[in-house]
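Exercise: predict the structure of this protein bound to NAP.
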Amino acid sequence: MKGKTVVITGGNAGIGKATAIALAKKGAEIVITSRSEDKAKTAIAEIKSASGNEAVSYVLVDLSSQKSVRKAAEELKSKCPQIDVLVNNAGCYVSELQLTGDGLEMQFGTNHIGHFLLTNLILDNIKAAGKARIVNLSSIAHKSTRELNLDDINYEKDEYGGWKAYSRSKYCNILFTKELAKRLEKDGITVNAVHPGGVRTEIAEKNANWFTKLGWIVMKPFMITVEKGAATSIHLASSPEAEGVTGHYWVRSKQEWSNKPSQDPENAKALWKKSEELVGQVFPA
Ligand SMILES: NC(=O)c1ccc[n+]([C@@H]2O[C@H](COP(=O)([O-])OP(=O)(O)OC[C@H]3O[C@@H](n4cnc5c(N)ncnc54)[C@H](OP(=O)(O)O)[C@@H]3O)[C@@H](O)[C@H]2O)c1
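Solution:
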């Protein structure tokens, strides 16, 4: 991947960091995003030393804040005139109902809206790379969501559940993938969604209640390593076989079916329109 620029959100930890190391080993220039300067610097030292590649840097962004996303997008646009690969990897799991500073349910606001906005704002730089690739980290958890109540983003009518809201955000990652893939097909840019597997990271320990944390810690020994968890993202970001393949959901580097409603183009269009309303900006096809 010499000469290619790769941006990985949440590249300071877990699957994102493992993806960064693997793509740095392939010779790409890596830009990770992180919400903490200290974590970014520590991760960069590790990525450089594990890969032997010095072309690794960071941009700070809190994906739960649209203001922060807009600032980071400006920085990325001037730092990377061409973005060959964007891996929308960052994600959070939150047990109790929390709202972002913009007033959106935290997992929807971070996992979906943060990436929806960031991707659209840096799209010209992605287009400038020619045959670019976008990889969105979703999850098998999306399967618990069968419909989106776009009039109840903050669970004012329906009861909140951490898993329910996480599942919804991962379902949105697939709908976003489908609509974006359609919009970018003419530009030769591929967009795919990934379930990485059950991966031994700290995602369900950071913002989870004791019950979820305990369950996660008990399950951890049975989970796969971050290197294995990163394999599908790496495949979609770099393999010649994945060239030109777009709009799909992938597990273990193979195309699989996401659930039925996540394949419905009308659902994807409705989410896109709602997302535009929530970020106060229209992104024409
Ligand atoms: N682990 C699994 O079994 C599994 C299964 C299916 C899907 N996934 C998906 O895989 C992706 C990576 O997760 P992981 O397991 O590697 O988790 P992780 O180790 O917790 O890494 C998540 C990354 O996202 C960042 N992040 C979280 N909230 C953020 C925010 N508001 N702004 C900016 N960055 C933020 C984290 O930053 P901090 O380090 O500061 O927290 C971290 O860099 C996620 O999208 C997740 O939903 C994971």
